[in-house]
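Folding Task

Wanted — backbone structure
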Amino acid sequence: MTRKEWTRMIFMYIISTLLAICMGCTNSSETKDDGLRVQNSKYSGYWSGFWVQSEDEVSSWDNWGDFIGMDAQGDGSVSIDDDLDGFYENDWFYYTIYEDGTIRGDVFDGIINENEEIIVLIDTDRSDNALAIQTAIKEASSMQNSDFFGAYIVCEFGFDVNTNAHWTSRWVLIANGNGTFDYSILDHSDGSTGSGSMDYVMSENGRFVVTTNGDKGMLIADGSCFVLLDDDYSDQTLEFSIGVRKSTGVTLSSLAGEYIVVRFEGDKEGGVIDFYTSFIESVVDNAGGADFEILAASDNDLISGHYTFTVTDTGEVTIPETGDQGIASVNNGLLVFVDTDSSNDDDVSLTIGVKKTR
């Protein structure tokens, strides 16, 4: 551990301890301004997923990620540990969850889905020169290779950890339920194509390892979605992905509702590489339209607006105004988009939305 990492760890420990004293006073009888009650117990149990962070080192960005486990106490605190290298051992962050699933915390803001099995978090505070995204799934039991089956649309964001070059991709993954899956790239921001087969091994708690390349993932209990992280820097790349299984009978009206949306964006306008994060609220109607308002952003560009979208019977979604493409999981209240076209604006992004609790 470097001196900088050690100093940061001690600083975060002091700050988080003080926050714990304040936030520990929060209970289920308290409300926020719109009358929503606090329900911190929504986030409890053990969760696994990725934490990806970009640190602005003045002359360049330092991008890194880790696959972590989180022990949520249900009382407004989460213990973070990494079973592989121990980097996060004894680290904590603190949060408040409201009854609509919205999360406000000392480090991250985000949302937990209605089933209390998926959590997405974003760090938009650039004052410490660091931005981060975290997505995790609640661990299950008695999971096996056969739970990973069907056709998934996967949205991915990747970095070159040396040059800070970044890219996005959208691909289809066909899991066979027998320890293998096939994949094929549908779109890639740098024009790459490819397909192939890989092997995986599933643990009882839903964690899995792609034995072909060492990627680590977490599958939800019903097998309908997963998170995946490539944190093996030997090839100088870091990639994080979310996959959602195709379904049937998805309509515009089935996506209607209020969502909390997080967005991780990379930009290279004028040859200067930069990264941005946003925390967004969006209201989706039942006819293919949506209004949005950015509540927090790393660049403080708090805009609002409207967009339209289309959806196929299998849940695949397209936003014509931006070219973003992705997929919806109606059962999980989940929307995932990726922008793979950097030809006009030099930026690419990964966007995750979760429907508020009804």
Residues 3-23 form the longest helix (21 residues). Confidence is low (pLDDT under 50) at residues 1-29, 84-88. The first strand starts at residue 44 and ends at 56.
